[in-house]
Amino acid sequence: MDSPGNDSGELSIDLQTALLMSLDTLPSQPLPSPEEGLVERQFATLFEPPHPLVLESGEEFGPITVAYQTYGTLSPQRDNAIFICHALTGDSHVAGRRRPEDRKPGWWDGFVGPGKGIDTDRYFVVCANVLGGCQGTTGPSSINPATGEPFGPDFPFITISDMVNVHHALLAHLGIDKVLAIVGGSLGGMQVLDWVVRYPKQVGAALVFASGARLNAQGIAFNAVGRRAIFMDPLFRDGRFYGEQEKPRFGLALARMVAHITYLSEQSIEMKFGRRLQHSNELAFDLRKETEFQIESYLHYQGKRFVERFDANSYVALTRAMDYFNLAQSHGDLVTALTETLARFLIVSYTTDWLFPTSQSSELVRALSAARKHVTCTELDSPYGHDAFLIESELPKLEAIVRPYLARLYHERAAQKAT
Amino acid sequence: MDSPGNDSGELSIDLQTALLMSLDTLPSQPLPSPEEGLVERQFATLFEPPHPLVLESGEEFGPITVAYQTYGTLSPQRDNAIFICHALTGDSHVAGRRRPEDRKPGWWDGFVGPGKGIDTDRYFVVCANVLGGCQGTTGPSSINPATGEPFGPDFPFITISDMVNVHHALLAHLGIDKVLAIVGGSLGGMQVLDWVVRYPKQVGAALVFASGARLNAQGIAFNAVGRRAIFMDPLFRDGRFYGEQEKPRFGLALARMVAHITYLSEQSIEMKFGRRLQHSNELAFDLRKETEFQIESYLHYQGKRFVERFDANSYVALTRAMDYFNLAQSHGDLVTALTETLARFLIVSYTTDWLFPTSQSSELVRALSAARKHVTCTELDSPYGHDAFLIESELPKLEAIVRPYLARLYHERAAQKAT
Predict the structure, then answer these.
(1) Does the distance separating the beta carbons of B222 and A261 come in below 8 Å?
(2) Residue A330 confidence (pLDDT)
(3) What integer is the mean pLDDT of A376-383?
(4) ipTM confidence
(5) What share of chain B is helix, strand, coil (3-state, %, to 5)?
(6) Domain residue spans of chain A
(7) CATH class in words for A8-214+326-418
(8) CATH architecture, range B8-214+325-418
(9) What pLDDT, on a 0 to 100 scale, did the predictor assign at position A394?
């Protein structure tokens, strides 16, 4: 990838220096005790009457409850806030455990925490579930106050900008006017890009991983397949299934299966499963055996697990928001859209990501360069495809870039204010 | 791709020379009149009692009707026969028209015919529908003589080898002991490879396009998604839907939609559709509008058209046969499997094919080289992904290789016999 005025060698020395410099200037926090280490999901209710959110569709909508989690401490200068945007099926639970008995920590626990890539000893980290989601923020499965029933298909059509506006209002509610950085991968990266276009003077840096300025047509195609699977499930009942005993699990599981393939790479699937069989060394010669190969068993398992935690209407709404995302559209072209922002950019792609290939990041970098923005970019080598930014073993590579990048950013912003 | 002892420059001169040489030696045919130009689908019934086909599963099965079409004239020496293996959803109707009013000719009409890539003025071309298919050869939708009803789920489990054994029997029935060449792309290419392993001394050349010695795990994954879609369709009724008014069209259409994405490339989808809308310049903000983007409309149309011509049980059976294909398995490894054959090989892959990427062809070429076979290989540059071998505008590239290749082959085999 073309990175104006940077090659990776030069970059790493720069960042190393910046990191050493900034270690003295950042607030240090004591390590939390085990109880303090537990994270609480909090809620804020915004856009209450008579101040609804005006959606991109023109429709007015409110009130909106937002589920969010915070990590670390906001500095007295309120200058160390980092907002994390989650991907399609993520949630506010980005790191840590909510209960001591939780088997698994948050979805980016390897990257967000004390001393980690996004160091919660230094930064005040906020992560919130998106509008239209199903993990605490108002979405299709929430109760419609007008009817006392879940919204279902009556939930309004939402876009990435609507999600961003809700999170912007959350930060205002938390007393944060400017954020040091907005960080996100995939659909989260789209939100990051929308943030800097929509709130050009309130974001210090935009960190965009495995994402792009729009979903390409192949991505739209796969999303269309997923939604078709949900719509064809008789138990979906046009989205009015909440009162029913049986949830539309087959369609949603199928949608997840096909999406999951696009998150992996040919290489990683081949490495992890190849043509190995699940339970035997002998082929069964049985057409009804759906989980004979390990890759089949894995996908079926992923589908099954997914329906336990996700809502079919949310899946439909969020994938469509992803399809609609086109950063250039609001301003006619990408360069113009990105002209106003004061943010600097860190763009990361992965060699084997074919859902958001490096060409998408390159397009973004070219536009940012044309708009005379400060942009750092890198293509990380990984066999794990689109999911690489979430995979534990791949996080050190990301951390090696992000940690010094944030440290320098924080140091420079602090220096700017001091002068 | 590594081609032992050949680079493309050397190859093209060689083949050009061979072509000129062979023009004199090949039998010339008069051009057919318009009526003669019509192709007739013929049928042969094989494996009649007491000689059933022993399937790879061990089960015995018969009788088997085979639908086939022939083009050109078998030479008195019976040395100019070329057998074409069709891909997953193809059929025996490889070229020409069956009725004067047919809107479209056969599926490879741009490549097979008088003066074309496979020149029916020179060669006797046979193409037959596969066992388990639904275009005339015995398959799940055929009548089970034991019950008088369609087989449905009682149709036996079949493999690529079973298909090949049936076609081998068809050629024997037509009085053809040795074929000049077997040609096929994708699933057709798998059949070609199985042919040379199974009948090592009866094939002059194996022409394998956009295929490989096995389906990779990603391919198995996409097939699993397609079958899941069919199985979850309530109208599929475990495969016993033939007597019903409503066919399981939703599941089969969905299977086709996802498969169709894998036949294209990111590049071709972007070129052909991009993010363009189907009917408007304005976004609809309507979740139930499934065909808003052109790519969606295209995939839905492909799904709809497909169910008019294909059987859901056949789709399940043939995709599973594809999953099971593993040329190395019967002999322990690929080199050993390929050791015995007398055939020479032409292996063609396409730059943007990600279902059977060039790495798959390379693996095959390495094994063939290790087995000391005569192998010619090339990666053709095309934006059209896996489907490139079927796309009209891409056929001249294939023809430029195949036509002289076959001409030299025929010339050399004739010369061998003369000495």
Answers:
(1) yes
(2) 81
(3) 98
(4) 0.90
(5) 40, 15, 40
(6) 8-214+326-418, 220-318
(7) alpha beta
(8) 3-Layer(aba) Sandwich (3.40)
(9) 98
